[in-house]
Amino acid sequence: MRVAPTPSSPPSPAGTAAPAPTAKDEFLRLLVAQLEHQNPLDPQDGAEFVAQLAQFANVEQGAQATAILSQIQAEQRAAAGAALAGFVGATATASADAVHWAPDGGAPPDLFVDLPDAAESVQVVIRDANGNEVKSIDLGPHPAGDVSIGWDGTDAQGVPVDEGTYTVEVVATAADGSSIDASPKLRGRVDAIEFSDGVHMLRIGGASVPPASVLSIERDA
Predict the structure, then answer these.
(1) Which of 27, 69, 118, 148 sits most deeply, having the most CB atoms within 10 A of its CB?
(2) Is pLDDT of 71 > 70?
């Protein structure tokens, strides 16, 4: 009977670093070392060895589960990105409590205050990620409805702000001095879908907002 020779594996290229051992590889190494160095006159108990094999099975299953989970997450991100791509070119309205602003990304979106009731005074404060006041805008009295904030992406001195996340605070007061629950929003054309730090973002002019902040999507007829 002839036995075909087993082809040898090609040598690894010089200078190629060995891959880092996985948890499974490390477990096997320790188990083999334990078997090699056990006392032949006092071999390892069979029940203990079976328990170690069961532990190895758990390690193997854990590694497989991690790989499957990573694949599922990657597929979910790809599906979400494909779905969001359909928003490009549409007009989005989103909550603007926090907005990531990039001066080089385009013109500021239309920031506005949604007033549920008439207000005697409306004050807007833009703050940076550290909570420092960047600009205060006095909008005066307004009837119920949308009130444009008119922020041009500059600070109190008219200097363009740096890229970063900015919060928009609104303090609206009624004629009787009571507070009005007014919320900041933005509206603009969706220029692109970005993926940063594991999160999809909709770029609207120079601002980026997460999909969860989007309140409505409109398309031209």
Answers:
(1) 27
(2) no
